[in-house]
Amino acid sequence: MEGNPVLFYARLWGVLFSQALSREMEYRLHLWLKFLIDVVWYGVQLGLFGVLYLHVPQIAGWSREEMFVFLGTLFVVDAFNMLLFSTNFWRIPQYVLTGELDFFLVKPASTFWLVFLRYPNVASLLNLLVALAVLGYALAQAPPLRWEAVVAYPVFLLNGLACMLAFQAAIGAIAVRILAAEGIQQTFHILYQFGMKPDSIYTPLVRRLLLYVFPMGLVASVPAQVLLGRASWELWVAGLGIPPVLLWASIRFFSASLRWYQGASA
C-alpha cells in the first residue's frame, strides 16, 4: 500500500461496493426483499411504541417525541452496521471453514479491514435513507435542540457504531478459534436486544452493566440522550471514552486470534 491509507481504503471500499451492487442487480427481487424486511422491522418498532403511548404519556421518563428520536437513532446506527459490518460478521465461520480467510491474510491490506468490510450490504443503503427520514421526522416533533448537542451527536453516533463493531470483532475472534461459531455469534444478537431499548427502562444494576461491562447502552440510548439534552456528565464521559478503548482492545484481540488460525486444511 502506497500513499494515503485513508484514500486507499476509501477507494477499495468503493470498488467492493460497486461489485456488490453489480451482484445485487442480477437478483433485484432479493435486494428489495432484504430492504423490505428491515423496513417491516422499523414499522414494528414504531407501531409498538406508538400503541404504548396511546395509553401512557411517558415510558421510563421518555415522552413519545423523545422515544421516536431514540428509535430514529437506533435505526441509523443499525443501518450503518448492516451496510458495513454485519454481513461480514456472520460470514466469519464461512471464511474459516472454506479457507477464504487465507486469502485475506496474504492481501496487501489490513486483514481486520477485509474481514469486516469485504462485502457491503447494498440493501442497507436504502434502509439508511429510511432511517434518516424517521430520525428527521422525529426531530421535527421534538423540543428545540441545543447547538452543542447537535454538534456532538454525530460523534456519539460514530461511537455507538464503534461499540457494535467492537462486540462483533471480539466475538469474531472467538469464532476464528472455535470454527463452529454460529452459537457464539448469537451472543451478539442477544446483547444487542438490550441496546434496542432506552437504558432508563432497566434497573440501576442492569444500566451499569449496559454502560460499563456490555456497553450496548452506548449504541443508541446515550446518543439520543445527548441530542435531547438529557445526558448527564457521566453519560457524556462514557459515550466519548469507552467506545474507542473498546474498539482498540477488540481489534487487538482479533489480531491475536489470527495466531490460532491454521488454515482451512488444518
Describe the model.
By secondary structure, the chain is mainly α. It has one domain. It has 11 helices and 2 strands. The chain has a two-stranded antiparallel ribbon with strand order 1-2. Helix 2 (about 30-50) packs antiparallel against helix 3, helix 3 packs antiparallel against helix 6 and helix 3 (about 65-100) packs antiparallel against helix 10 (about 220-230). The longest helix has about 35 residues, at about 65-100. The radius of gyration is 19 Å and the shape is globular. The relative contact order is 0.13. The model has no long low-confidence stretch (mean pLDDT about 90).
Strand and helix map with partners:
Blueprint: H1 5-26, H2 28-52, E1 58-59, E2 62-63, H3 64-98, H4 100-106, H5 111-117, H6 123-141, H7 147-178, H8 182-195, H9 204-213, H10 221-228, H11 233-257
Antiparallel strand pairs: 1-2
Helix pairs in contact: 2-3, 2-6, 3-6, 3-7, 3-10, 7-8, 7-10, 7-11
Read across the widest sheet, the strand sequence of neighbours is 1-2
Structural class: mainly alpha
Could you give the count of β-strands?
Answer: 2
Query: How far apart, in Å, are the first and last alpha carbons?
Result: 30 Å
Mean pLDDT over the full residue set: 90
Into which percentage range does the β-strand content fall?
under 5%
User: What is the makeup of the main sheet?
Assistant: 2 strands, antiparallel
The domain count comes to 1
Radius of gyration: 19 Å
Low-confidence stretches: none
Percent range for helical residues? Answer: over 70%
Number of H- or I-type helical stretches: 11
Shape category: globular
Question: What is the N-to-C succession of helices and strands?
Answer: HHEEHHHHHHHHH
